[in-house]
Amino acid sequence: MIKGIWKTRKVFINEQELNPFESQNVVNHSPDGFMWGYGGSGPAQLALAILMEFTDKLTADRLHQGFKWKFIASLKQEEDFTLDETEVIAWIDENRS
Fold first, then answer.
1. pLDDT at 19 over 80
2. Sheet of strand 10-13, all strands in order from the earlier edge strand to the far edge
3. What letters, b where the CB count within 10 A reaches 16 and e where it falls short, cover 25-50?
4. pLDDT band for position 96 (50/70/90)?
5. Where are the domains positioned within the chain?
């Protein structure tokens, strides 16, 4: 399960905190870290970081903007969220080629 906590802007995958720094080394969209609920730089950083957990860096970089619009931008601002990782993996598989 992927879970975001609005108050802290922290995101967890299976209870392990997702760190923005590794994804910022690929593309630094947001020096301030993760955000969700719109189509800006914080959501792009989150999308990239999530995808990097489920695929390689090149694939994550290529797919993260589409993933942002499909999953991250549509989340409600000022609310915690959860995403089913099986849906994330299925989306990656559909969009990988």
1. yes
2. 16-17, 10-13, 2-5, 81-83
3. ebbebbeebbbbbeeebbbbbbbbbb
4. confident
5. 19-95
